[in-house]
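Worked example 3 (structure in, sequence out).
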């Protein structure tokens, strides 16, 4: 199973997370996961094997991944779609 941007995955804690960004570094894939219910619950995980995730707690590694996560979001054009639809969201608020 390949994990892709915007996939919803359930972790061992039985919480659902949205794949918000993906980065690759040193032959590993890293995921920025956003809790579907609590927007302040963000996890950075790594995967050496498909469908096996391990949380990253190394602050230096996370700091080095931030530009790659940003690049992933920018290249996906998700923000463009969000901003394009923002007036519609505001009207329905």
């Amino acid at each position: 199973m390949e994990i892709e941007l915007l996939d919803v995955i359930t972790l061992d804690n039985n919480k659902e997370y949205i794949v918000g960004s993906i980065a690759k570094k040193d032959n590993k894939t890293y995921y920025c996961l956003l809790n579907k219910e609590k927007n302040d619950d963000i996890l950075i995980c790594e995967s050496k094997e498909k469908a096996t995730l391990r949380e990253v707690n190394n602050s230096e590694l996370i700091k080095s991944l931030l530009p790659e996560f940003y690049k992933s979001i920018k290249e996906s054009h998700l923000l463009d779609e969000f901003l394009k639809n923002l007036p519609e969201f505001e009207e329905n608020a």
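Notes: Residues 59-76 form the longest helix (18 residues). The chain has a mean pLDDT of 83.
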